[in-house]
Predict the 3D structure of the following.
Amino acid sequence: MKLDLSRAGLLRLAVAVISVAMAAYHIDVIWRGAPEAILFRGMHLAFVVTLVFLLYRRTEAKTDGPTSDEMKAIDERLPSLADWALLALGLTSIFYLFVNYDYVVNRIYYVDDLTNVDMALAVALTLIVLEATRRVIGWALPLTAIVFLAYGLLVARMEPMRMLDQLYMTTEGIFGIPLSVSASYVLIFVLFGSFMERTGTGQLFMDFAMSLTGSSAGGPGKVSVMSSSLFGTISGSAVANVMVDGPISIPLMKRSGFTPAFAAGVESVASTGGQIMPPIMGAAAFVMAEFLGVSYGQVVLWAILPALLYYVACFAAVHFEAKRLGLMGLPRSELPRLGAVMRERGHLFIPVLGILAVMYSGYSAPLAALTGTVLCFPVAALRKSTRQYVNWRNLLDAFMDGARNALGVAAACACAGIVIGVVTLSGAGIVFTQFVVGLAQDTLLIALVLTMIAGIVLGMGMPTTPAYIIMTSLLVPAIIKLGVIPPAAHMFAFYFAILSAITPPVALAVFAAAGLAKADLWSSGWAAVRIGATGFLIPFVFVYEPALLMIGSWIDILHVTVTATAGCTLLAAGLHGYLVGPASLWQRVALVIAAFLLVKPGIWTDIAGAALAAAIVAIQLQEKRRVSSAAPAES
């Protein structure tokens, strides 16, 4: 292949080399151990800054990485002189810390004054991080960081030198825990996702789901739910899940009779749940593990039952809507057979199983992800059906995709570090906690509702990870102070940072799905809220009943699982107007009431909810018998 020595060709080559070097560096760190915090996190940020200013222009602000078409057209948007200047300034600010490492670690933070050079480079790196984040994910998070910087200087009256010290010269600001999580966990799991995609696993997930559920009532909708949950375990991005699954599942749902808005709602809700679906959750789950000082495996354990409930409710919503509309599944002749799918592509599940085996053998999550990544191409080479994916070009593209796809989360984590640095140094977290507690007047439910609203609003304009981080700094301490155990408080914030992707008016997953379905945005958004309504209920359940997080005795866990599952199913039935038969308006209201009674902890509410649900089932069965007996008489 002829080497392209044009400016665009050299830029593409540089991007490829830097992307592979970034992936290789992080793999080496996982294998041999990480260097000191500033060095490791700084090198991670150096790679991120370099790729952002090479790939994104000043006018761009996107939530996903450059597409292959954009990479081919890179000669139309070469970096300007300003881009090169910003890149040089960012790298100078980072490498200054490396060159003067002994000075950085031996000085006494907040006591020794910064030099003029220290302060100039601290300002420079702060601005570079804000601009890099803006280019990748838009204005929301940088503006939030600017507001906190203004608060620190103008309201909290922080000394500028001390603020710059916090942000630049310590591991409590830009180089704090969020960037550490991005460097330690996110990059390798995103790389694993890219390797899985490049070896045909996405098609495996789709075929696997279609073979199991494609022929049942509303089959294409159920395929979307299953395949999105599977793909979400290797993606961690709601929009990415929509763009992978949606082009296949949405046309199938429309063809089977679902409205375009409902099809978009199903796809967006199912794709959003990927971030809460073990074994590989969204990046914020790794941040949670760091904040709580527990293993990632512990976070997975907490997340299992809520994630299953989320998908049970989504699956039930599709089923009841299909039954209400009288929609059938796809003909068996058009569906792949499970046996054939497993014979041809089933071996591609091995890397995921490898991750689970390593993780639950007591090794670290990054090492587990590295194991899965290393297995992807050798496993694909095992069968002729997937051997075409095994080539050097595909391997190189997988490395490049992994590095580029991590840019959004990495830039957001660095920017979120600015917010946390100001919050920590100014005491804003304590002030905000006192404000929320005072507003709630010691009423936990009000505090939870305030936290829910804040999570949805924050998540509307920024990715899940920084939204969760900001909530952890400002709101989580308040609900913990009101008696919520820390795991439940953090999971509560985590869920609502995620659910903003399906909550109008700014719902990124819905926007993506509605575009594919050619549906009205508002109709799609409200359909998504109705389908995912249980997702808004589940966090309140595990706050009041931690057994849903597998915290407590097995009897309590089993009890709350059964009642919550029944409640989630009844809520879907009530919202979609069908249980064992069509539901009238009063029956739908009764089903919703029964659902709330069952999900609310307490034996008497469970009995009342079960009795009400049983009464509705009996009435609907009697109505069905009456209709079926009347039909022969009329004929």
Q: What stands out?
A: Confidence is low (pLDDT under 50) at residues 61-76. The chain has 32 helices and no strands. The first helix runs from residue 7 to 32. Residues 449 and 540 are 9 Å apart (CA to CA).
